[in-house]
Amino acid sequence: MASVDTDNEKRNDRLKSADFFDIAKYPHITFKSTFVKYVECKKCKVIGNLFMHHVTKAITLDLILNGIGKNMIMQKPIAGFNLRGIVNRAVFRVGKVPAAIVSENVEIKVNGEFEQE
């Protein structure tokens, strides 16, 4: 959670505080996929369990394959992707701020790359 980045240092510090993610007490969020459902070319639904603030809930995320290529240095096949979804922070007991001030819906964004071993 220490890597939370909203392009605003003051907001990042607030999100890391006990008012929201409380990273001193809950330093990690994990997601373990349980199923991947093909939707259409380059698009899938990734179903799995999100663990945050000692709460585990099933969620669904949208996966988009950006492209397949080769690592320039290692010359190994790589695949780039985006993973996106919305979760309700109240379900995970995150944030002591009313929804009238800060939305309960939080967008998860992951940009990644897989490299073949």
Description of the molecule:
By secondary structure, the protein is mainly beta. It has one domain (30-115): Lipid/polyisoprenoid-binding, YceI-like (Lipocalin). Helix content is 7%, strand content 51%. It is built from one helix and five strands. A five-stranded antiparallel beta sheet has the order 1-2-3-4-5, with no helix packed on it. The two termini are 28 Å apart. The mean pLDDT is 90.
What's the structural blueprint in terms of helices and strands?
Layout: H1 9-16, E1 30-40, E2 43-52, E3 55-70, E4 77-88, E5 105-115
Antiparallel strand pairs: 1-2, 2-3, 3-4, 4-5
**Largest sheet report:** 5 strands, antiparallel
- So, CATH architecture? Beta Barrel
Shape: globular
Across the major sheet, the strand order is 1-2-3-4-5
Which regions have little confidence, pLDDT < 50, spanning 5+ residues? Answer: none
CATH superfamily: Lipid/polyisoprenoid-binding, YceI-like
Q: What's the average pLDDT? A: 90
Count of helix runs: 1
Radius of gyration: 17 Å
Entry summary:
The chain has 117 residues and is mainly beta.
Which terms would index this structure?
1 helix, mainly beta, Lipocalin, 5-stranded antiparallel β-sheet, globular, 117 residues
